[in-house]
Automatic annotation (TrEMBL):
GO-annotated cellular components: plasma membrane
Species of provenance: Danionella cerebrum
GO terms of molecular function: calcium ion binding; G protein-coupled receptor activity
Protein name (database record): Adhesion G protein-coupled receptor L4
Location of the GAIN-B domain: 294-468
Keyword hit for Glycoprotein: no
Top-level taxon of origin: Eukaryota
Membrane topology of the entry: Multi-pass membrane protein
GO biological processes: adenylate cyclase-activating G protein-coupled receptor signaling pathway; cell surface receptor signaling pathway; epithelial cell differentiation
Domain EGF-like: 64-102, 114-151
Signal sequence segment: 1-23
């Protein structure tokens, strides 16, 4: 005891240690009777406190805390929360798997990761494609196939992919009209946000040519609804703009180019122009409804959009300039008047990386010096197509547009010629490349700089001196036409000779006369109608006539071989009977082939490039097959007769 008396501090420290070891709650009744789910706490006013996971006064009540209801998203977006007495646990949602424990709590290092169901081959069945998405997957059919459920389906509902019976619908005007009308009617009553969301979803699958056209019409069509002018709440505008840009991207991405090129050139231009016009118009309309956003960017891959809200007085001081994927564009105002209704003007820039191949320049009056281009070589679009538009032309009076467009392929400025062009189109949505109002100011290996006095869709046209394909094509076309004219003159002389000179008329001259008539008709129709591909039904008739008369020419060649065989082997025949059968074979057998071909595949008569048989589904073999058969028969005749010295004497 003297030890503690001599050092009071030591006594105090000893007392504190002794109290911590013995727990005063054990020896001193600090707490009244506590609730079973509570414990005695020295720092508590009454000495009792509910345990973790419970709420109450600790004496008469301790209620379980429902963490799953009280804390929003406690387990995260990919897990379910389950409450237990005094605690909770998380489990991953279907389609997700845990990286550790199956039951876990927040912040213990466990999380849920997506299961890629598409790793399982054959998940969607034959002729289909699996698309993984967070927590699930969805299926679509490969090109040329379709499902009764539409572009998207789940394999567990019995849906499968079957060959699309309407995959050639784009060749039939009535079929196109029906398909487009069905798609438009299914979406016409949707609001713009709903419509853009649905189109984005539907166009994410692989599309046929007629679906490309249908969804563009659906995007461009809207039901007049003046009583619902405010159908775009501001909070939905950004999402709708994003869906719009991604929908446009889905329609023109590289994977769809093969389908676009199956469409007739005029139709293709019409729908591409409609798409460009609609994207620009809808973007400006949506931007006008959003007064909060001052700047927005959406990059969908092949298509990118930038939106700016510009104050009139600022536009007068500084050009509106943007950089987008290595391309720059600057808008300079001439004057600034009073602002628009919301005090600002919307300026939209849209860039299309892959659309140039679908808008190849052709010989039309839109390009003033096309003949100069044609002499130098083929013209190509050698840059992205970039569009600029403003919502209020009175507020933002344009003075000049300066563009620096990046070349798709590097050029040699000394050998390759570039031109600044824009896509000019009418209210009927038919367009062409034009040079009016645009001049080239500078060019190097990677970029061409242009100055224009108007807004629209701009691009760089290039004529390469290293590729004279177009010039060669024109020359070869003229040579072909000249050769056919000479051939027609010679054939007409032969027909006249065989018809009117009685001294030479016999079975052989009759065969030659009909052969010349068939060739004359085939070449004449070819000369005047082979390029009339813009008129679908007329082009189909031309293709059918060419099919018939060329087969007829081959048939009369075969008849000549048969006649030679009859002469050599010395068969005695009735001349009148033989001639009648020759006519039946020479003109009847081609008619049978053409009739069967037209019945089974009339849509294959005429293509977007020429009035001839399509190569799709091997339809061209309806001509090549009979022609090859006749050639083989003639070759067999030659093999039989080549060693017979008297053969040619008998023919005299």
């Amino acid at each position: 005891m003297e030890f503690f008396h001599s050092s009071p501090m030591k006594l105090l420290l000893f007392a504190a240690w002794f109290a911590s070891v013995l727990d005063l709650c054990t020896f001193v009744d600090v707490c009244p009777p506590c609730h079973p789910d509570a414990s005695c706490k020295l720092d508590s006013k009454k000495g009792c406190a509910c345990k973790n996971g419970f709420t109450g006064n600790g004496i008469s009540s301790c209620r379980d805390d429902n963490e799953c209801e009280n804390v929003t998203g406690i387990c995260g977006p990919d897990a379910n929360c389950s409450n237990t007495v005094g605690s909770y646990y998380c489990t991953c949602l279907s389609g997700f798997t845990s990286n550790g424990k199956q039951q876990f709590q927040t912040n213990d290092g466990t999380y849920c990761k997506d299961i890629n169901e598409c790793m399982d081959d054959g998940r969607c069945g034959p002729n289909s494609k699996c698309h993984n998405k967070p927590g699930s997957f969805i299926c679509s059919c490969l090109r040329g196939y379709t499902s009764p459920a539409g572009p998207w389906f789940m394999p567990d509902n019995g849906t499968d992919c079957r060959e699309n019976q309407k995959k050639l619908c784009h060749l039939d005007d009535e079929c196109i009209k029906e398909a487009v009308n069905n798609t438009v009617q299914s979406m016409i009553n949707l609001s713009t946000p709903e419509r853009m969301k649905e189109i984005r979803h539907q166009t994410s699958a692989e599309l046929s040519p007629v679906l490309l056209m249908s969804y563009i019409e659906a995007m461009a069509s809207r039901k007049p609804n003046p009583e619902h002018e405010s159908e775009h709440p501001e909070e939905n505008v950004n999402e709708t703009l994003t869906n719009l840009v991604f929908s446009v991207n889905n329609l023109i991405e590289n994977d769809e180019k093969v389908e676009w090129k199956k469409i007739n050139e005029d139709l293709r231009k019409y729908y591409i122009t409609t798409l460009l016009h609609t994207a620009e118009k809808e973007t400006l309309l949506l931007a006008a409804r959003d007064t909060a956003t001052t700047q927005m960017q959406v990059d969908a891959g092949e298509v990118e959009m930038k939106l700016y809200k510009v104050e009139p007085h600022e536009a007068k001081k500084h050009p509106v300039t943007t950089m987008i994927q290595g391309n720059s564009i600057s808008l300079t105002t001439n004057k600034a008047m009073h602002g628009s209704k919301n005090g600002s003007t919307s300026v939209v820039f849209l860039i299309y990386n892959s659309i140039g191949d679908l808008l190849k320049p052709t010989e039309d009056p839109g390009v003033a010096d096309y003949s100069r281009y044609a002499a130098a070589g083929e013209i190509t679009v050698n840059s992205p197509v970039i569009a600029a538009a403003i919502s209020d032309t009175e507020t933002f009076a344009l003075k000049n547009v300066t563009l620096a467009l990046k070349h798709t392929q590097a050029i040699d400025p000394d050998r390759d010629e570039t031109k600044c062009a824009f896509w000019e189109y009418s209210q009927g949505m038919m367009g062409h490349w034009s040079l009016d109002g645009c001049t080239r100011t500078r060019v190097n290996t990677t970029h061409t700089t242009c100055s224009c006095n108007h807004l629209t869709h701009f691009a760089i046209l290039m004529s390469s001196a290293q590729a004279n394909l177009l010039a060669h094509y024109i020359v070869l076309t003229r040579i072909t036409q000249l050769g056919m004219v000479i051939s027609l003159i010679c054939l007409s002389m032969c027909i006249f000779t065989f018809w009117f000179f009685r001294d030479i008329q016999n079975t052989r001259s009759t065969i030659h006369k009909n052969l010349c008539c068939s060739l004359f008709m085939a070449q004449f129709i070819f000369l005047v109608g082979i390029n009339k591909s813009t008129h679908k039904w007329f082009c189909s008739v031309i293709a059918g006539l060419l099919h018939y008369f060329f087969l007829s020419a081959f048939a009369w060649m075969c008849i000549e071989g048969i006649h030679l065989y009859l002469i050599v082997v010395g068969v005695i025949y009735n001349k009148k009977f033989l001639h009648r059968n020759f006519y039946v074979f020479g003109y009847g057998s081609p008619a049978v082939v053409v009739t069967i071909s037209a019945t089974l595949g009339y849509k294959y008569y005429g293509t977007s490039n020429a009035c001839w048989l399509s190569t799709e589904n091997n339809f061209i073999w309806s001509f090549i097959g009979p022609a090859c058969l006749i050639i083989l028969i003639q070759e067999e005749y030659y093999r039989l007769f080549k060693n017979i010295p008297c053969c040619f004497e008998l023919l005299r």
